[in-house]
Amino acid sequence: MAFGKDSIIYLISTILCTLTLAASGNALRQRNINVGNQTATAAATGVRLEINTDDLTNAGWALGVGAGGAAVGSLILFLYSLHLRPVDRFSRKVFFLSPLMLTLNTLLMFASAIPVTIFGRTREAGVKGFIGNTQLPDAVIKGASTIPAEYWQNAYVKFMVIAAWPELPFAILSCFLAYRAWRKERPSAQHHHTDTVHPVISHNEEKTQDIRHAERM
C-alpha cells in the first residue's frame, strides 16, 4: 500500500465534497421542514400559503448532485492510489471514466456554487397568502410570518453557501491527477511500455548467446 501526495489530495477532496453534499442536503431538508411548518400554521388560521424557493432549491440540488458525484469519484481514485491490487485489463479500458466523471461533477459544483452564493446572499422566498381566492397583501403576510423570508437569515443557507467553495480547489487538482493517472494506465500506454521493454530483453538474450558461443570455442 502506497500513501503518497496524490492519495492525500484525493482524500481531502473526498472529505470536503462529502461535507458540501451534507450541507446542501441539510439545507434542502430544513427548507422543507420550515415550509411545511409555516403552511400548516397558516392553514390553522384559514390562510393558504404558497412559498416559492425554487431558485435556491434548484441550485442546491445541482450542488448536491455535483458534490456527491465528485465525492464518489475522488474516493475511487483514492483507493486506486493506494495500489491495493493490480489494475486489470478491463479497469484500464474504462479508467478514462474516472477523470471524465470527476471533471463533469466538478464543473457542475462550480456552476451551481455561483447561483447558490448569489441567491443565498441576495434573494428571498416568494410568499403569497390567500383566504379563499382572495390574495392577501404582501405586507400582511411578511408581518405575520415567523420564518425570515430572506435566505441569508437562515443558518442552514449560510452553511450551504460557505461549504460550496472549499472543496473546489482540491476537486480541480484531483481532476488533473486523475488525468495523469489515466495517461499512465490507458491500454495504449501499457502496449507502448511492453514494446519498449521487449527489444531490450531480446538484445540481452543475444549478448548472452554470443558469450556462450565464444566460451565453447
From TrEMBL:
Keyword annotations of the record: Membrane, Transmembrane, Transmembrane helix
Listed transmembrane segments: 7-28, 59-82, 94-118, 155-179
Superkingdom, taxonomy of origin: Eukaryota
Protein name in UniProt: Uncharacterized protein
Organism this protein belongs to: Dioszegia hungarica
